[in-house]
Give the backbone structure.
Amino acid sequence: MDSLTYKFMLHDGLTYHDGTPLVADDVRAALLWYADPANSARSYPGVRFIKDIAIASDTEFTITLNSVNLSFLEYLADPSAFIVPQNQLSADVEATNGAGPFKLESWDEGVGLVLTKFDGFYGADDVTLDRIDVSFYSDATARVNALLSGDVDFIDYVPWESYDQLEASGFVVHGEVGVFQSAIFNVETGPFADPKLRLAVAYALNRENATAAAFFGHGTSLFGVPGSGPTGENLWEYNPERAKELLAEAGYANGGPKVHLLSNSTYVFLRDLALSVQADLEAVGFEVEFTSPDWPTFTEEAVAGKYDVTVQGNVGNVQDPAGWLPRLVQPRPEANKSFGYSNADLDAALAEALAAEDAGARQAALDRAYKLIGEDVPFATINQRMQAYAYTDRVSGFEVMLGFTQPYSVNNLINVTITG
Amino acid sequence: MVSFLIRRIATAIVLAWVVLTLIFFAIHTVPGDPAYQLAGGDSGFTEEGLQQIRESLGLDRPLGEQYANYLLGVLGGDLGESFATGQPVAQSILRRLPATLQLIAAAAVLAIAAGIPFGAWAGRRRGMADALMTSVTSVALAVPVYVVGALAVLLFSVTWRLLPAGGLTPFAEDPMGFLRGLLLPAVTLSLAFSAVVARMTRTAVIETSDRDWVRTATSFGLTRRRVFNRYVLRNSMNPVVTVVGLEIGSFLGASVIIERVFNYPGISTLLIDGVSARDYPVVQGVVIVIAVLFILINLVVDILYGILDPRARIR
């Protein structure tokens, strides 16, 4: 209706798997539950803008926002903003009753689950798979072997070292870049409280080497904010000499400071990236102490700021940088953002961009934000990794979603068919 | 025999309590906030949200109080609920335990079936047979279990597609599929164990064969085969039974790797997942069950040992 008011009409015949109808009141209850910060919902950053949801009928409702948020519809499309029956809106309840094309038939914790076609789905005629058997393989090699041996037809999270092997064996390997990796900093205490040293890191990183080391070349180098266009994507370059100059300007002309590089031993690609970062930092004069505990220990240390620099993966909830950047540059107890970082000017620029209805004003605000990121370096991006799925030639109709939605590709198997 | 059993069972109960206490304090001391793992790294949680999770899990209470509550629960047969899934831990363990027990039992049967005849044959024949047994068992002992597993998958699953690379179909669903899924993990797990059993049997058979009473039995006119099968082999079994008991206990540890390589849905996978998520109740529950199993196996071995050698009961 306008930038603050959205009117929705629900599709006819929406039904939950238990046969009860999905009505507007369910949408209202779900979105308001996600908008409650106490519930720690992933879609909270978007739905927190909701001021009111007015129900006109079982299929019609209007959402009013507190302020303009051009990413709002994207947040609603995020799979984490599922609409579920109201009795499932509790952390203590198993939310297994949805309204999608497949219903949960059985679940064996840690082993697998079985989904069957839901005939009450409004688009059931387009769904060709009658049943999907999902097996959980936590070990990447076991996952690849399962495909190679014919145990399964489709795997996700294909390890990068197996792309060539699987393709050579006749399997389809299909992926897109989405998730991105960055060096992030403790800006509250230690050497990286000085933005010059953070900038030195941004110039010291050899992104090509890092992509080869961690992803066997299956990724793209990043020199700025992913998906931000020319003004935001080229904030830095690989220039070790410039990094050394910045170290000298920061008072380390005769050798950089000693820094603690924290990584983890659970995600091998993050550890390999961190090792590449270690080599790059040492090449320009930093003295690096490297530690890599397991993931839970790593996250606890990262949230507590027990590091100087670390390497983390991130993905936006939405494609719009004005929508997802705030989470990375505003104080939150998260392991994948710089500890202690805050910048009021940057926050203001991003808020202005998010609320701007005029395209020119929006881009101007974003450009201001990118310039601040380039100078203040709340994170130094390294690369975007390819994330692939592999399957037999019996499988068709699978599509990999683009950008940050890539990890959700397996949520959409409506058009997938399998022969034989 | 009754006092022997009472002594052993009392020791077993004390051991189980010690293990429970150690694992409780160990897992609570290890860094890694369960609330953060539960919230997920990229969700929209706040410090208040994390604190709410800690409160709902009871992690905000003093450690001593948490321990007392847990101990009381265990004594009442309640192992708590998984932080991650909310499922009762006992239920999760009971779902997974059969697969692990089936794996261990199959591996033990294979190892005993292969190891005892092989070792007895080498101990009786000596010479070339002994040299062959020593060489084969050396290789079996030297190659790590994960290498054997990886090679087995590569050959029998990926290359020849004879057996599944992983997983286990329940017996009730498909008995043949169950056996096919069990075969590679069980053979892999049994390989080094069968070598140990073979070597132990060989040594015991050689020692027993040199005893005076063996010569006496032979001089009474009994055939060598009868003396060997009826007297030598039986009297060689005491050390073998002890080793079998200890090694079956160690299967519980080795199965961690086997379950990983073969994506086998056993109790070890539950443990690894629990550690990775800092799911304290799951880790504690699985460790306690493994410890109790280990203690029970040793108890059975002690009883068997007592039956085979009455002198052990006196000691």
Remarks:
- Chain B has two domains: 2-75, 93-314.
- Chain B is about 80% helix and 0% strand.
- The longest helix of chain B spans residues 89-125.
- The two ends of chain B are 11 Å apart (CA to CA).
